[in-house]
Specification:
Neprosin, Neprosin_propep, 10% helix, six-stranded antiparallel sheet, ten-stranded mixed sheet, mainly beta
Length: 416
């Protein structure tokens, strides 16, 4: 297999390190009423619980059916027109859009790989037509968060040029320098160990536009293990969006108005099952994000042709037109809780060099061009900013097209 890695200029390195930090799924900031070492203040506690109660009423919509998941989640079947998206003033009173025009040139899913389903659906019970499944948010979800006011959102912190000290570590492949109208990839799913509640491990794709300042636009989808957000260590299907560099817009999953879900069998934020095992079965998911040429909305496809829903074009500024960068890969948070590097794993927890069945991968990487056609990547670059902890190796062949292996164990003899 020929390597597709390219020599990276210093300008690109600075640009991507800067981008890494802007993208980072930062641990949310703490607020005073969450501090465990503070005195109990009944009035403050009452205000906090009232705030949480009001937010829960807004997030959790009336359901016509509830499904109990084996992992403890409650999946509410909510009428499509009552989902959180339609709280948005520009969507009030509307119905979900008609089906989009799919990109041309899709690569069929190989029979060698089994696609995942979600844990909640293993009972064979689904939400009725005309409804969508929504993972119920609980009071405990809020109380676990280090900032209840930013619950479900990323925190943007002051920009720092030295990415080695911001706590976020990455192993990614990316393309830039053109106009992109979508991206597609298949990635295998693992359950990496996360060392503490305020760290996470994720694998995702990003569709990006803007100046990488306050006007940054992103659409993101993948799987993540986040004990803070979900209260457990299951890998979960997630989405995110922002139109202002994670400041006031956007959120995870359906925790705010924005993403319009159209599917009654996929629950965003729910656990994925089965998962890959070391030297055993490999289970992957396929993700496709693309801009519908007719209406301009950005659609999400999960698996082999399953439409999940769309981000309306009016949510964005730069992404109303096209993306200027596409990125694929893994990210972890290292908060150095014990004054040493975290043992939080990325991907399978094994380095890229171990290859198939042992390392995590992205395969069949493609982008969508101006003609709504899926095309292979040109000039894929790969980068790991802490290669002794987590690394990446790219390649290309006839079956997987553009691909890479990535990941690692975190703390080890070369990553103290």
């Amino acid at each position: 297999m020929a390597s597709s890695c390219c020599k990276i200029s210093p300008i690109i390195l600075i640009f991507v390190f800067f981008l890494f930090f802007i993208f980072s799924v930062c641990p949310v900031e703490s607020v005073n009423f969450n501090g465990s070492n503070q005195n109990f203040h009944p009035k403050k506690e009452s205000l906090k619980m009232k705030f949480i109660s009001n937010r829960l009423m807004k997030i959790n919509k009336p359901s016509i059916k509830t499904i109990q998941s084996p992992d403890g989640d409650l999946i509410d079947c909510v009428l499509s027109h009552q989902q959180p998206a339609f709280d948005h003033p520009l969507l009030k009173g509307q119905q979900p859009m008609d089906l989009p025009e799919r990109p041309k040139g899709k690569i069929p899913t190989s029979s060698l790989f089994e696609e995942n389903v979600q844990l909640w659906a293993m009972s064979g019970e689904f939400c009725p037509e005309g409804t969508i499944p929504i993972r119920r948010t609980t009071e405990q979800d809020f109380l676990r968060a280090s900032s209840i006011r930013r619950f479900g959102r990323k925190i943007r912190r002051p920009i720092r040029r030295d990415s080695s000290s911001n706590g976020h570590e990455h192993a990614v492949g990316y393309v830039s320098g053109d106009q992109y109208y979508g991206a597609k990839a298949s990635l295998n799913v693992w359950a990496p160990t996360v060392a503490n509640q305020y760290e996470f491990s994720l694998s995702q794709l990003w569709v990006i536009a803007g100046s990488f300042g306050d006007d940054l636009n992103t659409i993101e989808a993948g799987w993540q293990v986040s004990p803070e957000l979900y209260g457990d260590n299951y890998p979960r299907f997630f989405t995110y969006w922002t139109s202002d560099a994670y400041q006031a817009t956007g959120c995870y999953n359906l925790l705010c108005s924005g993403f319009v879900q159209t599917n009654n069998r996929i629950a965003i934020g729910a656990a994925i099952s089965p998962i890959s095992s070391y030297n055993g079965g490999q289970f992957d998911i396929s993700l496709l994000v693309w801009k519908d040429p007719k209406h301009g909305n950005w659609w999400l496809e999960f698996g082999n042709g399953v439409l999940v829903g769309y981000w309306p074009s009016f949510l964005f500024t730069h992404l109303r037109d096209h993306a200027s960068m596409v990125q694929f890969g893994g990210e972890i948070v290292n908060n150095r809780a014990s004054n040493s590097h975290t043992s939080t794993q990325m991907g399978s927890g094994h380095f890229a060099g171990e290859g198939f069945g042992k390392a995590s991968y992205f395969r069949n990487l493609q982008v969508v061009d101006w003609d709504n056609s899926l095309i292979p990547l040109s000039n894929l670059k790969v980068l790991a900013n802490h290669p002794n902890c987590y690394n990446i190796q790219g390649g290309i062949n006839r079956v997987w097209g553009n691909y890479f292996y990535y990941g690692g164990p975190g703390r080890n003899s070369r990553c103290p």
